[in-house]
Structure formats: C-alpha cells, structure tokens
C-alpha cells in the first residue's frame, strides 16, 4: 500500500487528547463484497449501517485490492450524478477521470479526485490504456458525500489533489502517519475543499503502536480498516480489514495496530478516518442521484435524459464509420 509515505520523526505531531471524553465504539460491521462498473470487485463499506448514523456520508466502496492480468483492468462507463460529491482516493494503481464539464486527470498512489456533481454531471472512471495492456495492482476508495439542500444544485466542480498536497502529520509518539486529505486535525488542515464540513484522514499505524487523536464533538466518527488488523476504542475491540467502526459521542478516537511480525503481508493497520457535521435533512437516493424528495429524483432523471447534464466530449465519443 504505497500511498505517500514519510518519516514520522520529521513531521508535525498531533498531541494526544486530554480533558475530553473518549468516543465509545457503537458497532463494528463487516463489508460484504460485490462488483461495480464493468465488473471490478468492491467491498461495500457502509452496508447495514443506518443512514442517520452515516450522515453526511452516503456510500463508500473499497475498490480492489486486486492484481489484474494483462487485459483485465476495468472501470465504469459514462454515467450521471446529481446532488452530492464523489471522492476517489487511489492507493495502488492508476485511475483516469473525464467529465462533461471538461474536468479530468489521472490519479495514482495517494492522489485524490474530488468531484462535486451538484446540479448534474456526466463522468467516466477507467484505467488508462497502458494499465489495461500491462495489468497490475488496483486498490482505492470511492466515497459519496451528501450536499445540503441549499447546495444540491451548485455548479459542478472538479478538484485534482496530488498526494504531495495532503497534510502529513505524526501521532504523538511517532507510531502513526496521518494523511489529512480534507478537513482539520489538531489545527492542521488538508487541501480538499468541501461544501459539507467533513474530515477525511488516511492513517497508517505501525505494528504495536497506538493512535489517539482529538475529534470534533459536533462531527460523527467512522473508522474503516483498509488493511491489517488491530483494536479500536479504549476497550480494545478487535477490528480487521474490511470492517467499519462507528463511534458514539465524545472528543477523541483510539485505534491500535496488532503487534504482528514485519514479515506479515499487511503488518500495518491502515485506517480511513471519516467525520462530518450531520446535515439532518431527508435523503432520497436512487442510483446515481441523491436528493431530498422523490420529485427531485424524478426531475434529475428528466434533466439527464434531456441532455441538461452536458454531453460526452467529442474526444471520448465512439466513432461510427
């Protein structure tokens, strides 16, 4: 998992929480597996978790981890979105994005594509042709972040966040590397610009180390394990790859990595920490649209079918001779 690394001894440190209540672990759920797009494997990270607990997050897939043979890499066809933001964080491999607003780019180890669908957009995510030819490792995350009613129809926007732009921090004892992609931790801010106040952090906890971080009390708190195993909460509940911890109220989070030998294939505990200010509005999701009412979803379908989400750029339109 080569998402950008650094020597924690040289980084700013996040002070261990003091004088705040530790958040208890409400639930730990295991993500079921499935397939997305043209057939790439995913883990449905939020499956079985009530939407009221996830708010403002809507959906998350862990894409891969899969080692493709030549000719096997897959993506998604062109498709629409309205009413939320998609966040694609690439850990291993390469992903290419193009959309009907002219946004586009290629992300690789530790890069993030942040697309605000807003009023409506068409986009495609696929492996570059060179990766299709060669095959290779593919591993990433796609997160859907809801937009509040007042921002549902904002103009679409695309952010290309390089791995080197993430704010790199260390835990208090140097045992964990923290990559702040969006939001704030201990007074340090990530590069992602969001309509909904959220925090998104990728933490790598070394074998046997403990991660204790402050957390905004008005945010919810989720921790999804991308790789490895360890414990979560002050009562040290076991947690492993493909599991999501949902926390209760409080001002601090705790994780610890298992003291596994370095020869283990996944010696570190890799955790995606997510938190956001709940929107507390009705949510009606149907396929690629996340709105407040059924009527708004019906309108989204009508606008999409009428071509109001833009058109596929000519460079990406199949030629017919």
Automatic annotation (TrEMBL):
Pfam families linked: Pirin, Pirin_C
Span of domain Pirin C-terminal: 201-310
Organism: Amycolatopsis alkalitolerans
Name of the protein described by the UniProt record: Pirin family protein
The Pirin N-terminal domain, residue ranges: 42-145
Necessary cofactors: Fe cation
CDD domains according to UniProt: cupin_pirin_C (cd02247), cupin_pirin_N (cd02909)
Keywords: Iron, Metal-binding
Cofactor binding note of this UniProt entry: Binds 1 Fe cation per subunit.
Keyword Metal-binding tagged: yes
MF terms (GO), sorted A to Z: metal ion binding
Family, similarity comment: Belongs to the pirin family.
Residues that, per the record, bind Fe cation: 79, 81, 123, 125
InterPro entries with a match to the protein in the record: Pirin (IPR012093), Pirin_C_dom (IPR008778), Pirin_N_dom (IPR003829), RmlC-like_jellyroll (IPR014710), RmlC_Cupin_sf (IPR011051)
């Amino acid at each position: 998992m080569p998402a950008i690394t650094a020597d924690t001894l040289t980084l700013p440190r996040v002070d261990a929480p003091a004088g705040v209540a530790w958040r208890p672990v409400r639930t730990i759920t295991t993500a079921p597996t499935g397939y997305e797009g043209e057939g790439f494997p995913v883990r449905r990270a939020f499956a079985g978790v009530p939407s009221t607990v996830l708010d403002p997050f809507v959906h998350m897939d862990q894409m891969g981890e899969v080692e493709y043979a030549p000719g096997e890499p897959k993506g998604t066809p062109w498709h629409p979105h309205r009413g939320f933001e998609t966040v694609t964080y690439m850990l291993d491999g390469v992903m290419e994005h193009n959309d009907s607003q002219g946004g586009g780019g290629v992300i690789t180890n530790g890069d993030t594509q942040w697309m605000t669908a807003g009023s409506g957009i068409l986009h495609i995510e696929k492996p570059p042709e060179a990766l299709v030819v060669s095959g290779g490792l593919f591993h990433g995350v796609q997160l859907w972040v809801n937009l509040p009613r007042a921002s549902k129809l904002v103009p679409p926007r695309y952010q290309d966040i390089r791995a080197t732009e993430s704010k790199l921090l260390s835990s208090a004892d140097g045992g964990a590397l923290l990559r702040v992609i969006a939001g704030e931790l201990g007074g340090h801010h990530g590069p992602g610009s969001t309509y909904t106040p959220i925090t998104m952090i990728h933490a790598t906890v070394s074998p046997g180390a403990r991660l204790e971080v402050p957390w905004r009390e008005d945010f919810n708190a989720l921790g999804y394990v991308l790789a490895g195993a360890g414990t979560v909460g002050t009562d040290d509940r076991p947690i492993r790859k493909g599991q999501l911890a949902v926390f209760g109220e409080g001002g601090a989070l705790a994780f610890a990595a298992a003291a596994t030998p370095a020869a283990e294939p996944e010696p570190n505990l890799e955790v995606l920490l997510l938190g956001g200010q709940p929107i507390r509005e009705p949510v009606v999701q149907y396929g690629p649209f996340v709105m407040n009412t059924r009527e708004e979803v019906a309108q989204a379908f009508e606008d999409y079918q009428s071509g109001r989400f833009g058109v596929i750029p000519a460079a990406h339109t199949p030629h017919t001779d």
